[in-house]
Write a structure and sequence with these properties.
256 residues, alpha+beta, 7 strands
Length: 256
Amino acid sequence: MLLLGLVACGRSGQNYAADAAAGAVASPEGAFLAYEHDIRIQLDAQRISARVKAVSEACQSNRFGDCAVLQVGEEGGETRSGSIRVRIAPKGVEPIIALAGEGGDVASRNTHAEDLAQQVADTALTQTRLQKEHAQLQAYQQRSDMKVADLLAVSQRLAEIEAGLEQANKDAAQQRRRIDTQLVTMNFEGPAGQRSRNEIGKAFSEFGAIFTTSIAFVIRAVAALLPVGVVVWAVGAVVVALWRRRKRRKAAAAAR
């Protein structure tokens, strides 16, 4: 895993948009790097839902190039948050991040890349090997002197090779997709001060529920421990009574 530490703290969306081109990450020629970007954006809580929708629409309309929405999530309530994950052509990474951060703060950004060179090479070797074996068996299958048993064995092996080729082609396509496009995950949250106020308000609103829950817990604990306490008290009373009786007997014996 190739790590590229790109972290931006406390930068406004407008400033970030101006610097977008400078922050672009391009894969070197001939490299097989799959880039992923994780962005944390602080935005007024009331605007998060609309911003997630705007980013989703921009992606689905290919506004910044080939793009696919992979995941969208929102959490309501007083501490609103949202997230959207897209796979987009490299040239669209910076514009879509700028759109997401417009009017807010890009609190942090982390970009990393996975080197797929070995996986790509292994998949290509598998494809070549299977294609050669498939061609050889097809030629062998055309022979007129083949026995029925051999023909059945060849047909079965051809089916296995074709299934393997199909899987290898899928793997190659997925690897190519990861190299040709980049994964961008954008997480939205309210500003720190706004989140603090919301947390205080939430704590006050939950005071009654927390208080009654605590009282209920104490009642249940007392109810659960009361039988145990009664048994312990009874055993203790019996032990004390026996000890006193024994003590009196010893005192009476000593008086004689």
